[in-house]
Amino acid sequence: MSPKAASCPICGQPAHPETRPFCGKACRDRDLLQWLGEGYRVPGRHAEDEMKKSDEDGVDSTPD
Q: How high is the pLDDT of residue 2?
């Protein structure tokens, strides 16, 4: 029994070995544009919560 062929995550067509996991250059580029345009996001806390700073403390300082 052969393993199931991987399909392109963008369009669902079979993946091509040279552009794997995508079917071709167009889907690979579309995925890259989604990342660059912030279409995909990794869940996490807001940056403002992490980067609070006062006049005396720097960003990397820890409160006493």
A: 41
